[in-house]
Amino acid sequence: MTLPLDAAAVTDVGRVRDGNEDAFLVDDRLRLFAVADGMGGHRAGEVASATALEALRAAVAAGRPIDEALEIANEAVYEKSTDDPSMAGMGTTLTAGLAVDDDLLMIAHVGDSRAYLVRDAAIEQVTDDHSLVEELVRDGRLTPEQAAVHPQRSIITRALGVADGVEIDLYPLVLEPGDRVVLCSDGLSSMVRDPVIARIVRREPDPNRAAEALVDAANEAGGEDNITAVVIRAGEPVEGASGAGPAAVPDGAEPGEGRGADAGPEPGSAADGPAGPVHRAVAEPAAAAAPPRRNGRRRAWRFTRFAVPVLLIVGVAVAAVGLYARRFNFFVKYDTAGHVTVYRGVPGGLFLWSPTVERRTTLTGRALTPSARQDVADVRRFSSADEANDYVKRLRDDARARAAATSTTTTSTTTSTTSTSTGTTSTTAPGSAVPGGSPTTTGPAAPPPTR
After folding, report:
1. Domain-by-domain residue ranges, the chain?
2. What angle do CA 46, 51, 55 make, to 5 degrees?
3. Per DSSP, what are the bridge partners of residue 9?
4. Which of 83, 196, 345, 367 has a 20 to 30 Å separation from 172 between CA atoms?
5. pTM metric for this prediction
6. Phi, psi at 252, each rounded to 5°
7. Do residues 212 and 166 make contact, with C-beta atoms less than 8 angstroms apart?
8. What integer best gives the mean pLDDT of the chain?
9. Least confident piece of the model among 193-207, 288-302, 341-355, 405-419
10. SS3 for the chain, per residue?
11. Which range among 134-138, 173-177, 346-350 has the greatest average pLDDT?
12. Measuring CA to CA, which residue among 147, 151, 109, 145 is closest to residue 128?
């Protein structure tokens, strides 16, 4: 029995950007669905996303597995960027789903667009983001909350078209009746939280209305980027259905039981649609064509010519890590001489960046309370130099107050002792009379006893 798939897509320019560099693909005949988020500026991003989807559809129609189809799409974008200087450095994310059997959807992924699975009341992010902050989260160096507001959250570490080769992530997804799969650009996932995405697609059974509601929610949250959502709904199995036949399964992937594909409406794409309100553009399916091939004779000079943009991307990523290590991290601990010291950086260092001394004080652990002494020994971390210096100031003020209190107590004790000694050694002046007796004369007072 065939598990029918009903899909729809919506894209929108958002409330900040002037143009829409997102694109989508919905081809029910091929059972192929995709989202691409272009980059490059001056319309290069739009060209990159549209080129990638055109090459993807042609390769799948020619019988290529989904991972090979993305590699071919990468070649198409890369060759176009090398042939046209105005498109140099352009690239795109691409997250695609291809039904290779009745209940098996093969997800292929590059970049920070996403695929979600919504099943019953739960939502699962299927793909991993290829972005700087997401890798820092996976390494435990950032929390998800810090990543959501990090100034380098838009830096991606993998994209189609920026080099002549690319690594593709594959995720086999076995569907059940009632499942929803959401493919989206980061204009949705960065503005709408995962539980809200799940609630919207569960509330709207129609994929088109669900996609429109997702885009509306992203715009209501600020619409800071282009927004694209593809919603795929798995229906109840249909016995005896037939279609275009099973698609090719990538090497190493687990196929289903070999049931036929389900035919459906014509595919849609927003690659050439106008920027503006929410819209759904429909295009004619591309004819099967030989996939684009790399021109081997020009590979060497193309690599030399465009190695610089790739190195720049790597340099920006390294600089971003350095900025995080040096600008947003401070800590307080004892230096080798036992002085309370403010350091800039991450304790133990991060990649190429070791901590440096921001401020060294004369305050030592002996002047602190036992709890404060242990607190410094455990290494206190702060997000700014002001916070670290305020903490040191509180330690110093507390130490001075304790020292002043100790000094006052010592002075009071000394004064009391001196008064008692003076009363004991006072004598009557020479020639004075002692009441009730004869005049007496006394000599100097005896010195106080010594120890």
Report:
1. 5-276+306-319, 330-418
2. 155
3. 230
4. 196
5. 0.57
6. 90, -10
7. no
8. 78
9. 288-302
10. CECCEEEEEEEECCCCCCCCCEEEEEECCCCEEEEEEEECCCCHHHHHHHHHHHHHHHHHHCCCCHHHHHHHHHHHHHHHHHHCHHHCCCEEEEEEEEECCCCEEEEEEECCCEEEEEECCEEEECCCCCEHHHHHHHCCCCCHHHHHHCCCCCCECCCECCCCCCCCEEEEEECCCCCEEEEECHHHHCCCCHHHHHHHHHHCCCHHHHHHHHHHHHHHCCCCCCEEEEEEEECCCECCCCCCCCCCCCCCCCCCCCCCCCCCCCCEECCCCCCCCCECCECCCCCCCCCCCCCHHHHHHHHHHHHHHHHHHHHHHHHHHHHHHHHCCEEEEECCCCEEEEEECCCCCECCECCEEEEEEEEEHHHCCHHHHHHHHCCEEECCHHHHHHHHHHHHHHHHHHHHHHHHHHHHHHHHHHHHHHHHHCCCCCCCCCCCCCCCCCCCCCCCCCC
11. 173-177
12. 109
- Do 365 and 338 meet the contact criterion of CB atoms below 8 Å apart? yes
Examine the pLDDT at 341 and tell me if it is beyond 70: yes
Quote the CA–CA distance of 51 and 59 in Å, as a whole number. Answer: 12
CATH topology of domain 5-276+306-319: Phosphatase 2c; domain 1 (3.60.40)
Confidence (pLDDT) at 323: 62
Given the structure tokens 């192929």, which residue do they identify? 32
The letter for the amino acid at 395 is L
Identify the pLDDT of residue 357. Answer: 87
pLDDT band at residue 146 using 50, 70 and 90 as cut-offs = confident
Segment 326-354 shows an average pLDDT of: 80
